[in-house]
Amino acid sequence: MVLHWIYVLIAVLLLGLVVWQMFVDKRWREQAALAMLVVPLLLRILHIK
Amino acid sequence: MPLFRIRALLLLLAAVIISALAAREFSGMRTPDTILPAPSLTHSGLLSDYSPSLSGTGADTKVLVYEGAARGGTFLLLGGTHPNEPAGFMAAVVLAENITVRSGRVILIPQACESGFTATDPLEGSPQHFTIPTRSGERSFRFGGRGANVVDQWPDPLVYLQFPSGQQLSGVETRNLNRAYPGRVDGTLTEQTAYAIMELIRREAVTIAVDLHEAAPEIPIINALITHEKGQEIAAAAVLNLEFVGLQYALELSPQNFRGLSHREWGDRTTAIPFLMETSNPIQGRLRGRTSTALLLDGTDPWYRLARGLGRMRITYEETGEPLERRVGRHTQGIIALLEAYNEAHPEAPCVVEGIPTYEELLAHGVGAFLK
């Protein structure tokens, strides 16, 4: 159970970094790739998938 | 605001919308399948009635009990141990909606691994649902994954140490209900599920138990009836009875050193006589082509047909495929044969069940004809 919440915490931190990078990166390809990463991270954090 | 920030905002918005759409799709698998029990249902409960630790978890599942007027043996049937094996689950649903018990009791757990019905296996491209036409219209059922949903049980260890044997298996098997028996009350969710089923068998004094499965056409135990040592005579008589109706079953003995399996642990640790039946399901096979609802229902696949033509298959793959009605029919006919053999061996406490559709009836009318 502890591992589970550590995993969720890591996922939240990663999502934060991904979103932050989206807003500082000026290259549209990288921004699009980062946006794609948001989807699985969000679903995982919300315990949907 | 600079252009790249506006672009980031729009992309983030798109990602959130896509997440919401995907969430809606995935959450749909949390909606339980509708099972409409026959009027002879005596009462229904939950698996957590036998182990409260399951209450409120994604693993809790329905338990249906049908009692006869006369006393007799108690028959337990598990479907959905592996939610990607729909014939086992559908055979249990067909029984739930049709049977009348004359003597003894029947206990049905149609979706033994409820958590597994809420997610498909990664990288398999499996459909999430399938529909069957019935008298009351189309009914939809879920097609899940082999083990419990990772959302309910995570993480998988690198190596799964089976309790209490210490047997080492691949880490993913930690979510496989049919490697978790006898389970433990404070274990993983899968071990808790296995523990609750063991408790049910003990408290309800189950005398004969059947676990329904399917496997890929290339797996050697296809079309097999697996028995614990104490069920050998009943299984042999059942296989003979099945030969009389034109169905061949391989009689396999449960290996004594492979732990965690229903037919091994139920037999060793309870008074129940356990059996497991397998049918051939091309949607689980490695040779399969397009993984679709049609393949799930019709069981026809061009690559298995080609392999059959080349003579590379261990089993006979019918030109007409392995349709769901045939696979469910094999299970229902197998149950009829096992109960007949059990009743012959235990005339003092028989379990007499009426209304189980036969193999021929299912082939002639389809699964939907036996659903409300």
Structure overview:
The complex is a heterodimer of chains A (49) and B (372). With 49 residues, chain A is an all-alpha fold. Chain A has one domain. Chain A has helices spanning 2-24, 28-45. The radius of gyration of chain A is 12 Å and the shape is elongated. Chain A starts with a helix and ends with a helix. Chain B has two domains: 1-30; 36-370, Aminopeptidase (3-Layer(aba) Sandwich). Chain B contains nine helices and 13 strands. Chain B has helices at residues 3-27, 86-98, 189-203, 232-244, 262-269, 293-298, 302-310, 324-345, 359-365, and strands at residues 43-46, 62-67, 70-78, 100-109, 129-134, 137-142, 159-161, 168-170, 208-215, 224-227, 250-253, 273-280, 352-354. In chain B, the strands form three sheets. In chain B, strands 1, 2, 3, 4, 9, 10, 11, 12 and 13 form a nine-stranded mixed sheet that branches. In chain B, strands 5-6 form a two-stranded antiparallel sheet. Chain B is globular, with a radius of gyration of 21 Å. The mean pLDDT of chain B is 96. Chain A binds chain B through residues 3-4, 7, 19, 22-23, 25-26, 28, 31-32, 34-36, 38-39, 42-43, 46-49, and chain B through 4-5, 7-9, 11-12, 14-16, 18-19, 22-23, 26-27, 119, 151, 154-155.
- Under the CATH scheme, which class of the largest domain in chain B? Alpha Beta
Low-confidence stretches of chain A: none
Unreliable residue stretches of chain B: none
Gap between N and C termini of chain B: 61 Å
What secondary-structure arrangement, pairings included, does this model have?
The complex is a heterodimer of chains A (49) and B (372).
Chain A: H1 2-24, H2 28-45
Helix pairs in contact in A: 1-2
Chain B: H1 3-27, E1 43-46, E2 62-67, E3 70-78, H2 86-98, E4 100-109, E5 129-134, E6 137-142, E7 159-161, E8 168-170, H3 189-203, E9 208-215, E10 224-227, H4 232-244, E11 250-253, H5 262-269, E12 273-280, H6 293-298, H7 302-310, H8 324-345, E13 352-354, H9 359-365
Parallel strand pairs in B: 3-4, 3-9, 9-12, 10-11
Antiparallel strand pairs in B: 1-2, 2-4, 4-13, 5-6, 7-8, 10-12
